[in-house]
Amino acid sequence: MIRLDPEVLDDARRIYRLSSDEKLAHKLNLSGSTVANLRSGRTTPTISTLMALKKATGRPLDTLVQEIAIPAA
What we know:
By secondary structure, this protein is mostly helical. Helix content is 52%, strand content 8%.
């Protein structure tokens, strides 16, 4: 499973000088709940979200995500 590295959101907030994830969501044209779900790993990032975060942070795409192993049932 792929999830967004939460540090990317922190980097974007720092770069944009934003005090909350809600303000970051507005800046990225996302809902506050989407950013919260991305931060917690409940939502997989879309390509457009990854591209917006790449543009905001200057980080390469492969550093924006983490691969999480799903335990076998």
